[in-house]
Backbone:
């Protein structure tokens, strides 16, 4: 954690400065994601946290239409990991309060992301659709955590329909992703444990001819079924 605090300030200021000097879009994104790659590397060196990915073949080819990535959320680790490993720029959907975090939030403000006011639900969803459509048409992948918050290991949160509604409204596919990060990076603990975080990228799910509830159920069923396969001891009956 100390490493993150020490390094985020100079890197964030570099991102902000370069954005005002004219570096924008994909080039600015890769500059910002370089810090995330360093954070993932630091977690490996300092805490012994590694990662393993399966299902690369399920990602669309670069340069094709965008997709919506819906990711299991257990810790902060996957928020660093996804941009660090994905071969394509990502646009996170996040609450606008994060923009107020010194340095980190300022850098996020300069990137192509979708920040929303959760108190204004209708307006927030309209903003997600409007900006999401622009990014998806550019080939940027929109990433969301459908459970909305970090969920403890072995538990299932309520899957919200915002991500699938965006996919349906824009006509793009959804890719579900399971992540077992809580084994190494528990939600309510400062302690980190060595081990391997497994990431499983699922096959794309078409949003066509689906209602939000139907598509949401398919996404949730795949992710939760894959979580039980990847981390079976966490789902043993008590």
Residues:
């Amino acid at each position: 954690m100390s490493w993150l605090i020490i390094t985020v300030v100079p890197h964030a200021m570099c991102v902000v400065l370069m954005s005002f000097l004219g570096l924008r879009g994909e080039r600015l994104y890769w500059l910002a994601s370089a810090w995330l790659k360093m954070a993932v590397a630091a977690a490996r060196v300092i805490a012994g946290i590694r990662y393993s990915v399966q299902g690369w073949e399920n990602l669309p080819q670069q340069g094709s239409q965008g997709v919506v990535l819906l990711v299991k959320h257990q810790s902060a680790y996957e928020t660093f990991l996804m941009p660090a490993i994905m071969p394509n720029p990502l646009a996170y959907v996040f609450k606008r309060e994060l923009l107020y975090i010194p340095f980190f939030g300022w850098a996020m403000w300069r990137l192509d992301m979708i920040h929303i006011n959760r108190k204004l639900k209708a307006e927030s969803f309209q903003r997600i659709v409007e900006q999401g459509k622009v990014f998806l048409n550019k080939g940027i992948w929109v990433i969301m955590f459908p459970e909305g918050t970090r969920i403890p290991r072995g538990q299932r949160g309520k899957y919200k329909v915002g991500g699938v509604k965006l996919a349906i409204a824009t006509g793009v596919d959804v890719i579900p992703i399971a992540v077992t990060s809580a084994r190494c990076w528990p939600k309510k603990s400062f302690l980190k444990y060595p081990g391997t975080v497994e990431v499983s990228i699922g096959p794309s799910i078409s949003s066509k001819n689906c209602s939000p509830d139907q598509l949401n159920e398919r996404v949730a069923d795949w992710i939760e079924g894959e979580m039980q396969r990847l981390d079976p001891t966490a789902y043993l009956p008590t």
User: Anything to note?
Assistant: Helices lie at 2-20, 25-47, 77-85, 104-109, 121-137, 162-170, 212-230. The mean pLDDT is 91. The radius of gyration is 17 Å. The first strand starts at residue 49 and ends at 54.
